[in-house]
Give the backbone structure.
Amino acid sequence: METLVEARSQAGYALARDEGEAFWFFGMLQTVKMGKADTNGRYGLLEILVPEGIGSPWHVHPEEDEWFYVLDGAITFWVGDTKIDLTSGGFAFGPKGVPHTFHGTAPTTRALVGFSPMQFEGFMRTVGQPAPERVLPPHREGPPPDMAKLAPLAERNGFIIMGPPGPPPGR
């Protein structure tokens, strides 16, 4: 029997602004607009909502390209040694094999993040928490996530964590 995802991936589909499977992940809200099941893993697309000062760990994807398009707000993105400040309408590309990271620089930023192939989704599903509503997760005080514990999960899902969330080490 064909699943809903299999059916929609062959017939096409549309999602509204607040539709798609949503996760609270590293202080962000991330919504799957196009998952690996939709494209047989060839590519994927997330919509992310990022509060100021929150972002991804410094990391590298050996086999996965990643790109960002800012819809609203502002993000600082680092690709290798290059710092890129993006605002609404801005685009950045992180090619496979080049370390990169980002963090929000506006009170709230909404962006699209694409992947090819889509490997990252498995990490988000493992580490993230299904979002009970389409809002940013509650702010939690305390130490940042333990990158040493997350590193093996990241590697199983196609990327290598090289440092904690925030600007790259030494920048």
